[in-house]
């Protein structure tokens, strides 16, 4: 398993006001393998989008490092920076907000082609048509404007724009969450097909596990800026180790036979603030298994089986 991304103890802290620090991402060390879909799940405020942006190089970590194909992305030459800006792309949740309303679809898609000098004239035009077809849109739409499309079509335009620069690694930050339920599956299938046809690797961010279950090779679960568990998708669903993952899975209201054996675990209260997180294990204030040590020491991030990681004192 060749890794495309490696993070070592990545932190992203923000100051708010004079005294307070938001520990949005608080020390994450993971690998993302070439060609996989890595599902990243967490409640809002867990830091998953910030971690995604940090991996994509849109923001520098406060501490720790991000490596892309072995190169530290926070320490690149100008030329390498330019290449990586093309190879790593991000797809946002809201296609409406990310498309310039005054630009025609063809020009929106060509932005990256032009910026990176990838094609000109006839080749550029053919590339735009080809991209529209690949995302399931009729090439006749090149001269139309974003407002003339449905949300799902706009997300397809956004995907075509992303593919235009021939990326290798895509951070998809809740790309279907803003879409009607009826078209979520279509866009998800499109992204899944493109992964194979375009040789992509995804970090796929979602707020619930059921959304990433079928498309992810592996899934990481975040809580208050930390990774709580990471495993292959089947393994995580069949044999979750961390009490937080167990609670999330028990809350999925689908008649899945592997889940029905499990008792429902109801989490108490809301997640605490990332400004003043609990000492020791950040999940301890909501954990049904919390012990004395949990408030005293942060649990180590540990591989408990092959490719199955968790941070919990129950396994140390
Ligand atoms: Fe619960 Fe303790 Fe494990 Fe945290 S370390 S999840 S509080 S048992
Ligand atoms: Mg988010």
TrEMBL record:
The keyword Membrane does not apply. Keywords: ATP-binding, Nucleotide-binding, Transport. Transmembrane segments: none annotated. The keyword Glycoprotein does not apply. It comes from the Bacteria. One of its GO terms (molecular function) is ATP binding. Coiled coil: none annotated. SUPFAM superfamilies: P-loop containing nucleoside triphosphate hydrolases. Belongs to the ABC transporter superfamily. This is ABC transporter ATP-binding protein. The lineage of its organism: Bacteria, Bacillati, Bacillota, Bacilli, Bacillales.
């Amino acid at each position: 398993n060749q890794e495309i991304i490696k993070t070592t103890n990545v932190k992203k802290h923000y100051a708010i006001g004079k005294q307070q620090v938001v520990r949005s991402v608080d020390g994450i060390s993971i690998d993302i393998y070439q060609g996989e879909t890595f599902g990243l799940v967490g409640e809002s405020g867990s830091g998953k989008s910030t971690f995604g942006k940090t991996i994509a190089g849109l923001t520098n970590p406060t501490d720790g490092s991000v490596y892309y194909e072995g190169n530290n992305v926070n320490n690149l030459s100008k030329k390498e920076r330019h290449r990586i800006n093309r190879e790593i792309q991000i797809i946002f949740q809201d296609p409406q907000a990310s498309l310039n309303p005054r630009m025609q679809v063809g020009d929106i898609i060509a932005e990256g082609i032009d910026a990176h000098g990838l094609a000109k004239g006839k080749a550029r035009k053919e590339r735009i048509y080809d991209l529209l077809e690949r995302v399931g849109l009729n090439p006749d739409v090149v001269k139309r404007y974003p407002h003339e499309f449905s949300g799902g079509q706009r997300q397809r335009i956004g995907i075509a724009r992303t593919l235009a620069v021939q990326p290798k690694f895509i951070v998809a930050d809740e790309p279907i969450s803003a879409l009607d339920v009826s078209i979520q599956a279509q866009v998800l299938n499109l992204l899944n097909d493109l992964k194979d046809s375009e040789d992509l690797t995804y970090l796929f961010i979602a707020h619930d596990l059921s959304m990433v279950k079928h498309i992810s090779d592996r899934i990481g679960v975040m809580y208050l800026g930390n990774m709580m568990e990471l495993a292959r998708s089947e393994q995580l669903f069949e044999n979750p180790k961390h009490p937080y993952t167990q609670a999330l899975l028990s809350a999925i209201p689908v008649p899945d036979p592997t889940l029905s054996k499990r008792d429902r675990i109801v989490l108490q209260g809301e997640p605490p603030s990332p400004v003043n997180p609990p000492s020791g294990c950040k999940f301890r204030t909501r954990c049904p298994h919390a012990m004395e040590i949990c408030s005293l020491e942060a649990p180590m991030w540990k591989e408990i089986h092959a490719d199955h990681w968790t941070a919990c004192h129950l396994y140390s």
